[in-house]
Give the backbone structure.
Amino acid sequence: MSGPAMGSIGWFEFGTDQPDTIKEFYGALFDWEFKLNTNLPGVNYHEITTGPGQPSSGGIFESGGRFADYAVFYILVPDVADTVAKAKDLGAEVTMEPVTDAAGITFGRLRDTAGNHFGVFSPPAQ
């Protein structure tokens, strides 16, 4: 199987008003590479590749100071809307309703019952 398994951590993200600082630090520390992603209009997002020949596995969301800095992980799920609904039934807070970008990736964000921030995502339908 290529790629992460359903229910596993398949993506990570930094939200920051200092994207160049994040890129400089992690680029120097781990040799990560960065590429601008324009799949969500109006959002400055940089994909992170963690090694040569590896697919993108994370990103940097430029906040422009609109929210506090964060680092969050995303869990791969078969259906984001269903997972968000189930999490809500279990007591989670939905912090971002599901959205689909131009590449067909659907994602949403939640806070678990202990207040921890996490996300869920699914790849485009095939």
About this structure: The longest helix spans residues 19-30. Helices lie at 19-30, 80-89. Residues 109 and 119 are 4 Å apart (CA to CA). The first strand starts at residue 9 and ends at 16.
